[in-house]
Specification:
Elements lengths: L6 H21 L3 H10 L2 H6 L5 H14 L4 H8 L7
Helix pairs in contact: 1-2, 4-5
């Protein structure tokens, strides 16, 4: 777990790493990977915002699943509501 006071910086660092990976993918001619990273790049921003961005996060996950079918299972897992097993 990241300490609360470091959470915004951690999300910003994650987003910057995604941007760097996207740039490298474009340079390597991996446009499919670069496009996926382009879509993923916004997710940390939604997490860092003080406003409720849940609907936008869900919409982006659904969009990623449509545009990148190999990621569909990730969006499906996200939509599953965790149940208390206790």
């Amino acid at each position: 777990m990241i300490q609360d006071e470091q959470y915004p910086q951690a999300l910003r660092a994650l987003q910057r790493l995604i941007v760097q990976a996207k740039e490298q993918a474009y340079q390597a001619g991996q446009s499919d990977l670069a496009e996926l990273l382009n879509d993923v790049e916004l997710l940390p921003e939604f997490l860092a915002d003080d406003a409720d961005r849940t609907a936008e996060f869900i919409e982006m996950m659904q969009s990623i699943a449509r545009l990148h079918p190999t990621c569909r299972y990730i969006a499906d897992e996200f939509r599953q509501v965790p149940t208390d097993s206790a």
